[in-house]
Design goal:
- By secondary structure, this protein is an all-alpha fold.
- It contains 9 helices and no strands.
- Helix 2 crosses helix 3 and helix 4 crosses helix 6.
- The radius of gyration is 19 Å and the shape is elongated.
């Protein structure tokens, strides 16, 4: 029986391989043999760590979300400790959400969210993912002093994810996301102050 550190390392390699495969060729391409080959582990290790493909997909989605949540938590903490302004926060959010290359790792979660629409067993994991995003969005908006942060969180998440998807599909720049977040934040602030929403 493998020791805890070795088991955790093997499990992580399997999850990383699953996300790479999904990003490259979609959920249908996920087979135990391909996972084992890509992860550099034995075929038996895949079934030892994950009894079913559903378990594999669920854990892969949640792993991705935890990593994303960690990045956005760092951003939220920075907003609170540095007293960062709306423009700088939007710029940082754009860097976190759209940073890095347009690669298979960025496609994988969207594939999994779509798959959750077809497989109700994955929906709770997808719902957990969106709850995490909503909590973090509310925290960041609240740190920026945006009124109704809780109410605007889901809309903010939708804007970010929609523009991420657009960027993946078209190669559009991260600046589009920054502009959209600024518009949302300024509109919320103006509405709270009873002003016209800025153009």
């Amino acid at each position: 029986m493998p020791n805890a550190a070795s088991a955790a390392s093997t499990r992580q390699r399997i999850i990383t391989a699953v996300l790479q495969i999904i990003g490259e060729d979609g959920v249908a391409a996920v087979t135990n043999r391909r996972i084992a080959r890509q992860a550099g582990v034995s075929l038996g290790s895949v079934t030892y760590h994950f009894e079913t493909q559903h378990d594999l997909l669920r854990e892969s989605l949640l792993h991705f979300v935890r990593e994303e949540a960690r990045h956005f938590t760092e951003l939220a903490d920075q907003c609170q400790t540095e007293g960062i302004g709306v423009e700088d926060a939007a710029s940082l959010a754009g860097q976190v959400a759209c940073g890095g290359a347009l690669d298979s790792a960025h496609l994988a979660p969207f594939e999994l969210y779509i798959h959750a629409g077809r497989d109700e067993r994955l929906r709770e994991a997808a719902a957990e993912a969106f709850r995490a995003y909503d909590r973090l969005a509310a925290r960041i908006l609240g740190a920026l002093g945006v009124p109704d942060a809780e109410r605007l969180a889901a809309t903010t998440v939708a804007v970010v994810m929609g523009l991420q998807l657009r960027r993946l599909a078209t190669g559009s720049p991260a600046e589009d996301l920054v502009d959209a977040l600024l518009l949302l934040a300024r509109g919320a602030a103006a509405r709270s102050a009873g002003q016209d929403v800025p153009a």
